[in-house]
Amino acid sequence: MSVPLANMADFDTIYELEDEDEDEERVVSGGGGGGEGGGGGGEVLSRYCPEPVVVGGAGHITVFGLSNRFDTEFPAILTGKVAPEEFKTSIGRVNGCLKKNLPVNVKWLLCGCLCCCCTVGCSLWPVICLNKRTRRSIQKLLEWENNRLYHKLGLHWKFTRRKCEGSNMMEYVILVEFLAKYPIFRPD
After folding, report:
1. pTM score
2. pLDDT one-digit tens code per residue, 132-177
3. β-strands 53-55, 170-178: how paired?
């Protein structure tokens, strides 16, 4: 079984083939020139993880951008990544934390607004501190959920502030980010 060669001179010639990955990197980076300065590594990994899922506030009361509950509807993009029951349990824990802390924040806000003129605005400090404590407790809860379950599933829950769609106001949302899948079978 011999392979017929058209020309023995072609046998020793080394051809340089265009790599398909270079074309994909250019598409991801939005043009050329993305590989200078060592900044090309993040661009290559960005194609392996989709956009994060935003779980927004669904409550009717918002205090300093923090809604009184988050939407428990299961996003379709998470199908196959996490069970709907686990998602609803995690959102339920966050909503439970908000249900426990936010009524106290609202009461202090009303008292602070009533006394604002007499105290030159200092009566609003308790509300700001309580709101910060509520945010920290939600961040700790999400970090616990990440370590317990979601990092194993390739997800990362993050409590962050985003601009509202229709106005310049900011609101707190939960981002469900997909952890980047590293191409372990691709050579360096």
Report:
1. 0.67
2. 999 999 999 999 999 999 999 999 999 999 988 888 889 999 999 9
3. antiparallel
